[in-house]
Amino acid sequence: MAERRRTKAQLVEEVESLRRRVRELEAGEAHQRRVEEALRDSIERFELAVQGASEGFWDARILVDGAGKYRPIAIYYSPQLRALLDLEDDQANTLESWQARLHPEDAPRVMGALCDHLSRRVPYYVEYRMRTAGGVYRWFSSRGQALWDEEGKPIRMAGSVRDITDRKQLEEILRQARGELEQRVEERTATLAQVNAQLHQDIHERRRIEASLREAKEAAEAAN
Question: What's the Cα-to-Cα distance from 115 to each of 96, 122, 134, 184, rounded to whole Å?
């Protein structure tokens, strides 16, 4: 009888333990649902912010290869950035494809700025030309910020990209206009210098003639 009572007591304890476990699991599931809902809300807010912005965004994990070089991998492009570059959804987002699109004259400077930021935490801001999927080079400005682990190794970097082609074209127009204006000023200055030199020469010749006339007049008066 005592054995049966102990077994019954054990069963009651086990049932109660199972009930506590069920309650814990239910609470955990509720917490998980809240976390998932909060995550979905955050993603939705981020996507709305990105859609409402005039910039494209990118995000990349950083890998240190065997040679100790930093390599961004698993690069994410926002829909706006894809639109800026005319990229299709199935086109790869890799460091190689990004480098291949950089203008050859700008690539060394851009890669140098990226390495300086990852290795020496120099602020990352660059302006460069990049080829779109249509084969046209456009000007972009890019800002970025990396995250480093406790050992000082970069583990992630994110940033924004803005199309500044219109601004660059305006700057080029202003530069050309300024150059033309400076050339005209130089030409005008040269012309004025020639006119001034001719004027001085004319004044000198006039004074010489006037002096000659005075001498002739004085000589004539003396002869009379």
Answer: 15, 9, 29, 44
